[in-house]
Amino acid sequence: EAGVAQSPRYKIIEKRQSVAFWCNPISGHATLYWYQQILGQGPKLLIQFQNNGVVDDSQLPKDRFSAERLKGVDSTLKIQPAKLEDSAVYLCASRPREPPSTDTQYFGPGTRLTVL
Amino acid sequence: AQSVTQLGSHVSVSEGALVLLRCNYSSSVPPYLFWYVQYPNQGLQLLLKYTTGATLVKGINGFEAEFKKSETSFHLTKPSAHMSDAAEYFCAGDNTGKLIFGQGTTLQVKP
Q1: How confident is residue A83, by pLDDT bands cut at 50, 70 and 90?
Q2: Which of A52, A79, B39, B41 could form a disulfide with A72 if both were Cys (CB 3.0 to 4.6 A apart)?
Q3: A26 touches chain B (CB under 8 A)
Q4: Distance between CA atoms of residues A83 and B61, nearest Å
Q5: Tell me: the pLDDT tens digits for A48-59?
């Protein structure tokens, strides 16, 4: 089966510009996550969706970050305006609703964002 | 609150030597535990996981880990390192439906 797809793979922008990332989870996976991975650190959860509803966005900087998952399939994460400290890899993950691996998250290749 | 700590941000071993990457968790409820590997410019790939049952779990590429509740540990081992094992390794815990990651350990394998 196809894995989690993300695009673009790399993005370079200047501070105060806006940027959007796209994620297409594994087919049939109900739960979708966005993580931020700053260089030298482990991934940190930004937002979790169950189908098209938000389960947890407590760590999402809502003054500049937004995310949506229309129709409960693919998702978009947007940053507007970007700051230097937003430079990171943005990882998307999905989790199946059916056994046997409902406890496991599957990750996409990530989008590496550089803010200049 | 749950936390995951990986001891040692960098580990260097010779090819053929034992690999030991350390992970401890802090939680009142033992979480599900995972080890992921990340190769340069790639996403995270699941190596192995502990949920319930046998405390010694085997994963891909010859890795294994043992869940020790008394020590709140889930260390990752491999008997003989290969050059292709050089990567970043992340330990993660989940007891709320969300993954909490350690800070990662970079494994260097010397020829």
Answers
A1: very high
A2: A52
A3: no
A4: 39
A5: 999 889 999 999
